[in-house]
Structure formats: structure tokens, C-alpha cells
Amino acid sequence: MDQNKIPQATAKRLPLYYRFLNNLNHQGKSRVSSKELSEAVKVDSATIRRDFSYFGALGKKGYGYNVEYLLGFFRKTLDQDEVTDVALIGVGNLGTAFLHYNFMKNNNIRIKMAFDTDRDKADTDIGGVPIYHIDDLEAKMEAIKVVILTIPASEAEGITGRLVEQGISGILNFTPARLTVPHYIRVHHIDLAVELQALVYFLKHYPLERKGELDS
Q1: Residue 108: which residues within 8 A CB-CB, separation 6 or more?
Q2: Per residue of the chain (216 residues), what is the pLDDT tens digit?
Q3: CA–CA separation, 31 vs 33, rounded Å?
Q4: Sheet with 186-189: strands ordered across
């Protein structure tokens, strides 16, 4: 299987499938249909079947999918047995929330360290994650390739330039700034304000009908 031939839209849905399958496995379920998967992850059945088809015959018609087999398959596909260390930059309200949550509870991602410009936060820790001053960035995170940015937009470009020089591979950007990076660095932008505005717009213009309720 050539991972490079998998559409990016399909690749982004794989963690959703893995999370649901993991929950089913904990519940003792042995098999699941594409319809059940569809209702759980809010992706239509045809899309799920198409996504799975890129990986070969994962299920049987009339039987559905073997939960344990699928879980093992996607664990290997998503490298769930290999821990990825991540650095967080910006220990404000959002950054602090990430540190308290961390990610190792449910998957293979661990915030290993955090950085901030506030010297009072340096040499402390939150949720067991050590916090360093931003001046120590290059000295501390030489082995880390993935970063979460939760800093003011005005600081984003400067920090990103330092990360590029550091050899970073991926950035999860929670700032409104649109970062300029070389083509070999992947950036995922998550603008909470934009997502909220989009949600309100869809609520106003594309309201969903309630099912199972009688008209009064």
C-alpha cells in the first residue's frame, strides 16, 4: 500500500475511524457495519466504503467489518505504537488547557515540553510538562519535529522563522496568522473564531430538521 496515493481527505478521516473503533473494542463489540460507522463519525456510508477500499478488502458484504482487525490495521497505519513528541509554544489560556489535557490518554501524541516569553513560567511545569523560556527554544527541542502554536498572531512569523531554522516538519497553528513556510513543512491552521462564525452562519442559513418530533 502506497500511503502517498491515499487522498488527503481520506487520511484526515482515519483518526476518526480509529477513535470509534477503539471505543467499540473497549465495549466488547466484535463487528460493525458501515452504517454504524457512518452514524458515529458523521461520514456517509459510501464515503467510508470508498475510504476503506484504498486499503484493500477490509470487510465482507453482509457481515460488515471485524472491529479487532480494523483496529489493528489502523493502529499500524497511523503508527499508534510509535509515540510522537510535540512542543507547545505559548502557555496562555489555550496552551495551558492543552497541557492539562495532553494527548497520551487516547493516542500516540505527547506534549513533551512547552515554551513561553514569561520568565515567571520558566522552570515550572503544568500537567507534568516542563515549561522553558522561549530563549531556550533551540537548545531544548532539537529532536522535536512537530509544534503547536498558541501564541499571539503578532509573534507567529518570528517564531515560525526560528522553527524553520530548527528543522521542524509540522505546525498546528492556532493563531489567526497565515504562516509562510518552505514547501516541505506542513502547516494545519485552526482558527477558532472562523470556525465559530461558520457554525453560526450555517445555523442561520442551513438549519437542520429535528427528527422524531411530532408537529404540534
Answers
A1: 78, 79, 80, 81, 82, 83, 84
A2: 445 577 888 888 888 888 888 888 889 888 888 888 888 888 888 888 888 888 775 666 656 788 888 888 887 877 766 778 999 999 999 999 999 987 765 567 889 999 999 999 999 999 899 999 999 999 999 889 999 999 999 999 999 999 999 999 999 999 989 999 999 999 999 988 888 888 898 888 888 777 655 444
A3: 7
A4: 124-126, 129-133, 109-116, 84-89, 146-149, 170-173, 186-189
Beta bridge mates, 77: none
Identify whether 202 is part of a domain. Answer: no
CA dist., res. 27 & res. 18, Å (int):
14
Same domain, residue pair 171 and 115: yes
- Among the residues of the chain, which ranges form H helices? 8-26, 34-41, 45-53, 67-77, 93-101, 137-140, 153-166, 192-205
- Predicted TM-score (pTM) of this structure: 0.68
CA dihedral 190, 193, 194, 198 (to 10 degrees): 120
The number of helices, as runs of H, and strands, as runs of E, in the chain is 8, 10
CA proximity to 144, closest of 111, 175, 122:
111
CATH code of 71's domain: 1.10.10.10
Q: Taken in order 138, 142, 144, 146, is the CA torsion positive or negative?
A: positive
Q: Which amino acid is at 67?
A: V
Domain that holds residue 105: 84-195
